[in-house]
Request: fold
Amino acid sequence: MTGPKKLYVRTFGCQMNVYDSERMSEALGADGYVRTDDIEDAELVVLNTCHIREKAADKVYSDLGRIDQIKRQREAAGQEMTIAVTGCVAQAEGKEIIARAPQVGLVVGPQSYHRLPDLVRRARAGAQVVDTEFPEEDKFAHLPARTVGADATGKIQPAGPAAAFLTVQEGCDKFCTFCVVPYTRGMEMSRPVAAIESEARRLVARGVRELTLLGQNVNGYHGDGPDGPPCSLAGLIAQLARIDGLERLRYMTSHPRDMTDDLIEAHGSIDKLMPYLHLPFQAGSDRILAGMNRKHTADDYLRIIARVRQARPDIALSTDIIVGFPGETEAEFEATLDVVRAVRFAQAYSFKYSPRPGTPAASLDRQVAPEVAAERLERLQLLLADQQASFNAGCIGKVFPVLFEKPGRNAGQLIGRSPYLQSVHADATPDLLGRILPVEISGAGFRSLAGVVRAA
Ligand code: 5AD
Ligand code: SF4
Reply:
């Protein structure tokens, strides 16, 4: 074979999939693969999929149809292409994927990524391979360590990205009745503090200044501590905050039930912990919350928010909300609007309920008509957009420390992040990439801010 093997990765869904795609690319990089942005050039295509809502899962099959065309063209020209489906659709549907899309050579669930290079070799030798086990061994301990100074393709690069994700916890034991996560990602598992710290240090050595600690239920984190006993998320954050060169820490996604006192206090006492909290509440009606098995009421949620704000008054709040859960009445939907009005979110994600096969809510009676759910979603999103716009407008005139992460659309511009996770566009030279500088906010849109760099 001439030249390196080309790998094309397409990532759907959440930040954990973004992180997993990086780790898979690194594992395949150690096996001679180099990433390409041109799918037509790829010997190996990885679709890292999401199963959280029907629309996300459907996208995989429409993509597979298009990729099959490219695979046929390559084969007509005497070139190979192996298609791998990874992620939560792989876990949920397993060999059904190959039955529906026989062009797929390899189906791998999220717990088996450390076996990927070997599985790819078997698929390329002509086998159709399905691995959706929840193996005994810890995949993180078997994935190659993250190399210093190299990017996901294994190439040494002068400065890595300034912000990165780091998975610290995976899976969920909460069993919200609408959610596939406990089935696709399995039971809660926390990585040991020492393994996370060593990965964090390697990332910092690559130029990372900001880390977002990821987990489906990240504030339920309880990994083995450095001295043995389990460590909470607050303890982990305190430990990582000691790393020189690491300037900012964030975490997501959290559950209200696991918003412990020490974590709330950490927002007031750890400077490197950014003033931003993503805390889903899903619905404002206690009857619906009970039907969702959320294990909290609307009032519990509001009380947690009040305590978080006491610890860190300027904190920006974000959430996830579902409309049209089975049986939701107009009054119950309005209770959701009431919570939104009471909290005032800086930003939020909102979804129409989507029945997922195998989850308890999918078989409930009284599914809400799609047009009713669509109308509720529209009203909710108008309110949320209004809150987001006013949060952003309130930033005009303030000076924020901004971490510059990437070039802007216009030459001479960079895009960075404020402490509140807003994108900030400013005129700045490329040498400022990876640095945190004061920026005076001069303009605010719905999605981003504009500002002027002030002398540090
Ligand atoms: N339908 C709609 N939204 C869902 N979510 C999870 N499962 C579903 C579903 N079946 C949303 C929740 C969760 C976010 C990641 O996705 O709001 O917090
Ligand atoms: Fe799904 Fe989150 Fe509920 Fe866990 S806590 S079941 S990941 S919605």
Summary: Residues 149-158 have pLDDT under 50 and may be disordered. Residues 5-140 form a domain with the Rossmann fold fold (CATH 3.40.50.12160).
